[in-house]
Amino acid sequence: MEFEPVIGLEVHAELLTKSKMFCGCPTKFGAPPNTQTCPVCLGFPGVLPVVNKKAIEYVLKVAIALNCRINRHTIFERKNYYYPDLPKAYQISQKRLPLGYDGWLEIEVDGEIRHIGIADVHIEEDTGKLIHGEEGGFEFSLIDYNRSGIPLVEIVTKPEIRSLKELEEFMVALRQLLLYLEVSDCKMEQGSLRFEASVSLRPKGSSELGTRVEIKNLNSFKAVLGAVEAEIKRQQQLLMRGEKIQQQTMLWNEKLRITEPMRTKETAHDYRYFPEPDIPPIVITDEWLENVGKNLPEFPKQRMQRFVEQYGLPIQDAKLLTASKASADFFERCVSMLQQPKTVANWMLTEIQSLLHDDQIGWEDCPLKPEQLAGMLKLLNDGVISGRIAKSVLEEMYRTGKDAQTIVNEMGLVQITDEAQLRPIVDRVIAENPDAVEKFRKGDEKVLGFFVGQVMRATKGRANPQIVNKLVRELLKGR
Ligand SMILES: [Zn+2]
């Protein structure tokens, strides 16, 4: 029998607000443990939460961008459970009246457009972070409450993802959207974007849903894809043997590449949700909703189409440039200073992309500024530097943050176009290579390239190649 996977995803993204959800503590990542805390986010008795309006606006943005319906009257609820990372022993979340519900996100797989349903978009506060360690044979756990109370958006899909490819496309498209909306930095290595997946199998063609298994604590695209693939295989083997799937929560063991059941102690929660009595209901007025809707950015797909029309770029370039908001912004800023879209695109997608790749960072963290690239390309246009030098200038700008003109001045990289200055160098190169001169005499034109190369090397790439070419011909003929 052939089986079809049914996959759903729960996504948590930390919001980019400056302060926490219910107190004024900062949310900056990487601060020393427990330095960004106060009685509210440490759960002291008697304190009262104050709602961060910006966080609600961010989640509204996400809900609108995901084509959701909006609950105009909404409440916060307490999700009760005891765990050391949760000092209040409850988490303030939303259950019955999420801010957004019943939406969709468009993805494209193998040229085919699909809408993946979004069940629920809601707001909740993050927990603290447990750090488990071992020293001298003793195991210990440490707790950092800096994360406690940071606002999160939780996005829950309907179980409508049907393949690993769709799953990957969905995660990429969702991350791209959150970055475009500027509501989360989506840094997975810092835990800003986290996933939980649910997986069930059913006979192909069936419309019923099988027993679902949840996989928790997935912190990268790779982990999600690996875990879901392993879980599909595991369930397939069980079903082929005629066994039943047990409803349970699993964890991904990256080393062994298998999913393992979580200790039941930790999964058997009865959260006893009830309305948070310390926060009044939230009313989303027409005016508020309209305002948030008006301030949404241009979405990736529209921007990609505009890049093709406005700048005459090939679709593939436009797609790559708009893949992240940061690269699309970089491109437009640079083109506003130098009206050569195709040249800018080429430098971005080859040279800069490869520097970013070497450093394993994205455009969001690119140390190079659009102004620097535009400045360097102007020098190249004006013939001040050669194409070969341009590449090293680019790298130097990237590493040092200096502008192109400064680097060219400091390193003496100005292109040599003066024949009087180049002639003696060409002469010397010819004199040093009698064998090649002999070949040229016998009609071998290929050695011209060799001489030009030698002159370029002698001038560390600064000579203007056209002029060198001309001089080499002249001087060889004159011999
Ligand atoms: Zn606080």
Short description:
41% of the residues lie in helices and 21% in strands.
Architecture blueprint of SSEs:
Elements: E1 3-14, H1 53-65, E2 69-70, E3 73-74, E4 77-80, E5 90-93, E6 100-109, E7 112-125, E8 129-135, E9 138-144, E10 151-157, H2 164-181, E11 193-203, E12 213-218, H3 221-240, E13 249-253, E14 258-261, H4 264-267, E15 274-275, E16 282-283, H5 286-294, H6 300-311, H7 315-322, H8 325-337, H9 341-359, H10 370-381, H11 387-400, H12 404-411, H13 419-432, H14 434-441, H15 447-458, H16 465-477
Parallel strand pairs: 12-13
Antiparallel strand pairs: 1-10, 1-11, 2-6, 3-16, 4-5, 4-15, 6-7, 7-10, 8-9, 11-12, 13-14
Bound molecules: zinc ion (ZN).
Describe the protein.
This protein is an alpha+beta fold. It folds into 3 domains: 3-289, no CATH class; 300-411, no CATH class; 419-477, Arc Repressor Mutant, subunit A. It contains 16 helices and 16 strands. α8 crosses α10 and α10 runs antiparallel to α11. The longest helix has 20 residues, at 221-240. The chain binds zinc ion. Zinc ion is lined by residues 20, 23, 25, 37-38, 40-41, 149.
| Count of β-strands | 16
Which strands sit side by side, in order, in the main sheet? 2-6-7-10-1-11-12-13-14
**Can you tell me the number of structural domains?**
3
The residue-averaged pLDDT reads 94
Beta content: 15-25%
The biggest sheet, with number of strands, parallel, antiparallel or mixed sense and barrel status, is: 9 strands, mixed
User: How does the overall form come out from the CA principal axes?
Assistant: elongated
CA radius of gyration is 30 Å
Which structural class is indicated by helix and strand composition? alpha+beta
**Tally the helices: what do you get?**
16
Low-confidence stretches: none
Small molecules held by this entry: zinc ion
Helix content: 40-55%
State the end-to-end distance. 83 Å
